[in-house]
């Protein structure tokens, strides 16, 4: 299957299902070097008059350095048969080997970043804003204690969706 660009207005998805249940990949970098990781936390909406996604990345994740350096990333989603591969890509680090080759994904370089040919949907994004989750800002302290026992607070990225690609 080849990815074809579509207008964002043609996108019809349930973001709760797509991100929270099906999972996706956030990928940053280019042909000279990239990394990817599974995401299951995030959101989609409109802010500052722009169509955006939000993603959350812990400081120790190898992919974070690629997102920070590039200022852009892809958020991509896959058919159910790729769930096992997404699990591998979310638990192994690209620091330790070629996890992309291990799962058999084929890098696709577009919009100065990276996606994979196996994706059924790719959002190509440009970072607009980043900030770390701050423990003193939790209004419900149970969120802090349940999700941050190591105090490794995520960086939240808000990124404009510049291009949408769908498998045809």
Could you please describe the fold and organization of this structure?
Helix content is 23%, strand content 42%. With 168 residues, it is of the alpha+beta class. Strands 1, 2, 3, 4, 5, 6, 9 and 10 form an eight-stranded antiparallel β-sheet that branches. Strand 4 (42-47) and strand 5 (50-57) form a beta hairpin. The chain is globular.
Keywords:
single chain; 168 residues; alpha+beta; eight-stranded antiparallel beta sheet; two-stranded antiparallel ribbon; 5 helices; 42% strand
Gyration radius, in Å: 15 Å
Please trace the helix and strand order, writing H or E for each element: EHEEEEHEHHEEEHE
The portion of residues forming beta strands comes to: 35-45%
Look at the structure and give the mean pLDDT: 96
Which secondary-structure class do the elements indicate? Answer: alpha+beta
Shape: globular
Number of helices: 5
Separation, N- and C-terminal Cα atoms: 6 Å
Work out the number of β strands. Answer: 10
Largest sheet: 8 strands, antiparallel
Helix content: 10-25%
Low-confidence stretches are none
Task: Summarize this entry quickly.
The protein is of the alpha+beta class and 168 residues long. The protein contains five helices and ten strands; from the N terminus they run βαββββαβααβββαβ.
Topology (SSEs and partners):
Layout (H helix, E strand, L loop, with lengths): L2 E4 L8 H8 L1 E7 L2 E7 L2 E6 L2 E8 L4 H9 L1 E6 L5 H9 L7 H5 L3 E4 L2 E4 L4 E12 L8 H7 L7 E13 L1
Antiparallel strand pairs: 1-10, 2-3, 2-6, 4-5, 5-10, 6-9, 7-8, 9-10
């Amino acid at each position: 299957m080849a990815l074809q660009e579509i207008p964002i207005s043609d996108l019809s998805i349930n973001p709760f299902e797509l991100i929270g249940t099906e999972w996706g990949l956030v990928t940053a970098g280019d042909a000279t070097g990239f990394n990817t990781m599974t995401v299951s936390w995030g959101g989609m909406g409109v802010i500052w008059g722009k169509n955006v996604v939000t993603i959350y990345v812990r400081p120790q994740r190898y992919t974070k350095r690629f997102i920070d350096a590039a200022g852009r990333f892809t958020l991509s989603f896959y058919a159910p048969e790729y769930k096992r591969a997404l699990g591998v890509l979310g638990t192994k680090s690209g620091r330790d080997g070629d996890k992309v080759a291990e799962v058999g994904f084929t890098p696709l370089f577009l919009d100065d970043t990276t996606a994979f040919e196996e994706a059924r949907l790719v959002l190509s994004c440009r970072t607009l804003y980043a900030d770390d989750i701050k423990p003193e800002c939790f209004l419900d302290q149970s969120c802090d204690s349940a999700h941050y026992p190591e105090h490794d607070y995520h960086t939240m990225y808000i990124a404009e969706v510049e291009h949408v690609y769908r498998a045809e």
